[in-house]
Design a protein that fits this description.
Elements lengths: L2 H37 L3 H13 L15 H28 L1 H5 L2 H6 L7 H27 L4 H28 L3 H24 L2 E2 L6 E2 L8 H6 L10 H20 L26 H29 L1 H6 L5 H10 L4 H35 L1 H6 L5 H34 L4 H29 L4 H18 L7 H4 L3 H4 L2 E3 L2 E3 L3 H19 L9
Antiparallel strand pairs: 1-2, 3-4
Helix pairs in contact: 1-3, 1-6, 2-13, 3-6, 3-7, 3-8, 6-7, 7-8, 7-10, 11-14, 11-16, 14-16, 14-17, 14-18, 16-17, 16-21, 17-18, 17-21
């Protein structure tokens, strides 16, 4: 096999999902244009939003870097980090799917047995990823240039999004060399993505606003993140190329590093070896639920740490908001208006706990998706060959996933309590408990949906489950911006979940979510009784 033939094989295999990723990113870019026109149609509207952003920096954890109130720059402030995130997720999954996953399934060894060089599959994957990000960048450029935006800024915006994708293509290729399994490589890549995204947001939140509160200079933390590099290109304001070139250079360095590491290990091996097993199995492994816990505990601990840190930020940054504007009278006035009756700090807790809910949903989806991975690899068949029924087997995954949801949200509350103790304000702990309960309800819906899809359409389980989580997050963050009807916005469990209202719990759509969770999870267990194993990927 040659590199061109391997590249064609990858394109045939991925054409549908890459088409969805790329068109979805272009649609998100186009929606931002129409959303800004509908929601912030005048210059004064946009200026007031940026003043509020300067007063409440936590907003910048979920948006970009303000560069002025002009329509074009304002649009990119709202959407650029998420265009880059879409490219990053697409690139990470693509790289692992065609490298470490192929080794894990034994197919890479078959390719290595041909006259093709051992690095040929990796080079084909690199070309595949570069092509996908180039197409994504071109479509983003076309969206903005076609909307009447300045051509130079449109090019910067599109190339910046694609460049971040190339950084994470390199991250995932290196992770595939380091980790023994595709699951481990994907987990490492996603954690790097999440951490760098938060570093960029926190760096922006701790930045310095201009005198007119229309522009913010980010702090040094932002420069530790490729998302921060893309944002500091400031499309339609500064149109700076050098941060984009920094992204491209980092992507090249990481890609070369992956190519250097690959010949240093055997096919199927990794630099971070799996721990050797015990000589004798622990008693807990005599039951299927013990096996599920053993397989899932590492990733669940990681999600719990994420919940703890997010909860800690939810109350720790309250002092940052309260202390802002000491030297800027206009900002001091806005802060006084926003923080009436303590609503600003409570709102911060609710916003941060939406992220805790996303982490809990990711923990649940990853745990239940493990059942599909075990089925595909043939190890589920070995378990079911013992006196273990299908319902009991799937039930173990549901129980561990639900325990993971509760644990992530509980650690989020613990982090909020620790942050409140540090700041000497424990009044927010009650808000954190209520918000944590609401997001646990939301995350449980994704658990049940993943289980139901696994039973009725196993081959699309993993892709569809993650798309639904991402779609729910996008509706929660952008539904109001795009002026979508409340009925559409509330399709996201994250926005229709129980929330804090004046210090009390507002159930909103909580009862519907609980009902859907019970119905879908119960239906999955009932249907699993007669379902045959689907071992083909």
């Amino acid at each position: 096999m040659t590199v061109p033939s391997l590249l064609r094989q990858r394109m045939r295999r991925d054409w549908l999902q890459l088409t969805l990723w790329i068109l979805g990113t272009a649609a998100l870019a186009a929606s931002a244009v129409s959303g800004v026109e509908q929601s912030y149609g005048t210059l004064q509207d946009r200026q007031e939003v940026l003043v509020a952003v300067a007063a409440n920096p936590v907003i910048m954890l979920f948006r970009g870097l303000p560069s002025g109130a002009e329509r074009q720059a304002f649009t990119l402030f709202l959407i650029l980090p998420f265009l880059a995130m879409m490219a990053a997720f697409m690139s990470s999954f693509l790289a692992v799917r065609h490298t470490r996953a192929e080794e894990e399934l034994g197919r890479a060894e078959l390719v290595s047995a041909t006259p093709a060089a051992r690095t040929a599959p990796t080079i084909a994957t690199i070309l595949h990823g570069v092509t996908a990000n180039a197409i994504l960048a071109v479509l983003v450029i076309a969206v903005y240039a076609g909307s009447g935006f300045d051509t130079a800024g449109s090019v910067i915006a599109g190339v910046a999004a694609g460049a971040v994708g190339l950084v994470f293509l390199g991250v995932a290729l290196v992770a595939a060399q380091l980790m023994r399994t595709s699951r481990g490589a994907n987990s490492l890549s996603v954690w790097v993505l999440i951490i760098t995204f938060l570093l960029s947001g926190i760096g922006n939140a701790l930045g310095t606003p201009s005198e007119d509160l229309q522009r913010i200079e980010s702090s040094w933390l932002t420069w530790l993140s490729p998302f921060g590099w893309a944002e500091n290109a400031r499309p339609f304001a500064d149109d700076a190329w050098w941060p984009v070139l920094l992204c491209l250079g980092t992507g090249v360095v990481l890609t070369v590093l992956a190519l250097v590491l690959q010949p240093l290990r055997d096919v199927g091996e990794s630099f971070i070896a799996q721990r050797p097993g015990r000589l004798y199995a622990h008693a807990s492994l005599s039951a299927p639920i013990g096996l599920v816990w053993r397989l899932s505990r590492g990733s669940l601990v990681g999600w719990c740490v994420g919940g703890l840190l997010t909860g800690l930020l939810s109350t720790s940054l309250a002092s940052v908001v309260s202390d802002l504007g000491t030297d800027i009278p206009a900002l001091q006035n806005v802060l006084s208006a926003l923080s009436d009756n303590g609503s600003l700090q409570a709102g911060m807790v609710v916003i941060f706990f939406l992220i805790v809910g996303v982490l809990a949903a990711c923990a649940a989806v990853q745990t239940v998706s493990r059942a599909r991975q075990e089925e595909t690899h043939g190890t589920a068949e070995l378990v079911l060959a013992a006196p273990v029924g299908r319902v009991r087997w799937l039930g173990g995954y549901l129980l561990i996933a639900f325990a993971g949801v509760l644990a992530v949200c509980a650690f989020g509350v613990l982090g909020a309590w620790l942050g409140a103790l540090k700041e000497g304000d424990t009044d927010l702990v009650r808000d954190a408990v209520l918000a944590g309960f609401g997001q646990a309800v939301a995350a449980s819906v994704f658990l049940a949906i993943t289980a139901f899809v696994f039973v009725v359409a196993p081959r699309v389980t993993i892709a569809l489950a993650w798309v639904l989580v991402l779609g729910g997050l996008m509706l929660g963050l952008f539904g109001a911006l795009f002026a979508l009807p409340d009925a559409v916005i509330n399709l996201s469990p994250f926005t229709s979940a129980p929330t804090v209202d004046g210090g009390d719990l507002d159930m909103k759509g909580g009862w519907w979510l609980l009902g859907a969770t019970v119905l879908l999870a119960g239906g999955a267990l009932v249907l699993m009784r007669r379902r045959q194993l689907a071992t083909n990927g």
